Amino acid sequence: MSELGEWHCEKRPFPKNESFTKVHETVSETGSLSIIVLGASGDLAKKKTFPALFNLYRQGFLPSNEVYIFGYARTKISDEELRDRIRGYLPKGKEGTEDVSNFLQLIKYVSGAYDAPEGFQALDKAISEYEISINSAEGSSRRLFYLALPPSVYPQVCKMIKNYSMNRSDLVGWTRVVVEKPFGKDLASAEELSSQIGELFEEPQIYRIDHYLGKELVQNLLVLRFANRFFLPLWNRDNVDNVQIVFREDFGTEGRGGYFDQYGIIRDIIQNHLLQVLCLVAMEKPVSLTPEHIRDEKVKVLQSVVPIKDEEVVLGQYEGYKDDPTVPDNSNTPTFASVILHIHNERWEGVPFILKAGKALGSRKADIRVQLKNVPGDIFKCQNQGRNEIVIRLQPSEAIYMKLTVKQPGLEMSTAQSELDLSYRQRYQGVVIPEAYERLILDTIKGDQQHFVRRDELKAAWEIFTPLLHRIDKGEVKSLPYKPGSRGPAEADELLEKAGYVQTHGYLWIPPTLA
User: Fold this and answer.
1) Catalytic pick among 8, 24, 211, 273
2) Is residue 273 annotated as part of the catalytic site, yes or no?
3) Helix (H) or strand (E) holding 243
4) Beta-carbon neighbour count of residue 420 at 10 Å?
5) pLDDT exceeds 50 at position 458
6) Which residues have CB under 8 Å from 127's CB, separation 6+?
7) Which of 254, 232, 224 is nearest to 394 (CA)?
8) Which of helix, strand or coil describes residue 485?
């Protein structure tokens, strides 16, 4: 305040947090960026990869004077034919079709086999011509290979990239490879795949993508847990009774039965997506926000999980699943699974983690439910109304809300369940939540591996589920029938009750409206 009693602002130097700054320092990269989408004519590329690249382009993260996109596949089509295939999947914003047209002009197509040198030599020639055309300094170019392909061809494709399409030097530039799940079908196949790719590329070059790690609410977990004081003393076995991580779809395999039957719901959803979420819920605070420190803590959680017991597993298969002609009549492949995991460490000893996923259920959602223990000495006699829960709704209608007991408004002292609610649609009006693939591709360009699966992390995850999966494959654990549109097998609810989960009766969370 000045002598005249008026307030004024004075610009003062702000002391930087040195450790935080060092964590997030990035080397300036000025070389050309080539993004190569292998499997460019497939569904994954059209529906996920290219739309994510377009959104990054539209937001200014992929400037047209630095970036070029190459599609590669066996299909013999022209550049324009590929652009026409992609066009219908790109979201059109307020700017209309101008952004779409400009983006599509950045895409060039190269046709070739996945196991033949000629195709990858032609691809390398096309990339090099582009790099020369914008005067990119030798060795400074950046090449990002996105494998939108079946894992069975990863080894041969990676070998072709290594031998014929790599950046000539890594002094300033780089070559990175993004691989999609599933990473194998069990521990042995995953380790074999990791070894084959690991012989060709260093671990910092390999980005094993799990799109769940790019979801807004999943990325919020570390902030929620470690940046809020009131969660710190609650987040342990003294206060938490059980944790549920749930994924529900209200549709079946929809013509993909033959493919899905090779994997099942555990390999498709639980072993990767839900287990990654469990790691973030259960891990200890990392030393820093560097990717390796975070992934170290995730690995420790996985290594602390005890072997799964058959009596803590319920499998289901919806009625009508085997009507798909591509599904064997004797299939035991689960389309539903509820599995209880136990973490043998000081924080979580005795707390069941229930991982549940299913297709053709009565609703579509994914959420995390951290249910706290009963209040000791309940003077209000309200325990039958339900326990406190912290609910993190991942999709749809992203939200974080806390279920708690409050006084019912009125003259009498009666209680009811309500919530403290942070609904993103209401709180962040007008803010577009990025798609998971947008974040993860951008992280790959920046060289940030925090939200990608490390090799030892992948191995530890498969070690948890491989014994159970082998028993299922042998028919030793049977899938129970359930009706489409239901909650799944009734036995799953019984298992949930056995694990200690207390259902809240008479309470329904309703996403708030914008009015």
Assistant:
1) 273
2) yes
3) strand 240-248
4) 11
5) yes
6) 34, 36, 68, 70, 141, 143, 165
7) 224
8) coil
